[in-house]
Design goal:
With 179 residues, this protein is α/β, with parallel strands linked by helices. The chain contains 3 helices and 7 strands, in the order ββββααβββα. Helices cover 23% and strands 29% of the residues. 23% of the residues are buried.
């Protein structure tokens, strides 16, 4: 089957949200532009890592003076609206790359595959791919929302930092006793 490349250049919406009860949640990213709309499934750990990398990128852009002061100080674009319906995943995200190109943060999200290699240059072969161009204010808003969504899950055990189910959990720091 030929590869599908979805382009959002520039993206007008780039948000993350979760559906379900804590401990059973599914995470999704929706990307929207003038002509395209995509929803992809993503792992909670990938959401946290993406948010951390975005924050590191902003620090590096500031430190290296690669972005204008106006871009770096622009307020975050807050998008608190729910995910658009219907929520049907185009694919599950496997590999993500982030680059800074022409005053945009370019995010490439590739579908899971047997290979853990991002294939951007090969138009015909490889897993499906989303390419989204975002402004710094958009990624700031994404990070704010990602932190809220991730932290809305199960509380962490004060002893081992693992998530605690409503019925408790077997804490490794308490030698397997239920907390």
């Amino acid at each position: 089957m030929p590869r599908i490349i979805y382009r959002h250049q520039p993206a007008t919406r780039f948000v993350v949200s979760a559906i379900g009860e804590p401990g059973q949640r599914e995470f999704f990213i929706q990307v929207k532009s003038e002509n395209n709309f995509n929803t992809v499934a993503i792992d909670k750990g990938q959401v946290m890592a993406l948010s951390e990398r975005f924050e590191e990128l902003i620090r590096e852009l500031r430190r290296g003076k690669l972005a204008t002061p106006a871009e770096l100080t622009a307020p975050a674009v807050q998008d608190n609206e729910p995910l658009e319906l219907p929520i049907e995943s185009d694919f599950t995200v496997g590999v993500i790359s982030i680059t800074w190109e022409n005053d945009y943060v370019v995010v490439n999200m590739q579908a899971t595959s047997q290979d853990d290699e991002l294939l951007i240059d090969d138009i015909d072969l490889g897993p499906d791919l989303i390419i989204a161009s975002l402004k710094i204010s958009q990624i700031r808003g994404f990070c704010d929302r990602a932190n809220r969504v991730v932290n809305a899950g199960r509380p962490a055990c004060p002893f081992c930092a693992l998530p605690v189910d409503p019925l408790g959990h077997l804490c490794p720091r308490a030698n397997g006793y239920r907390r």
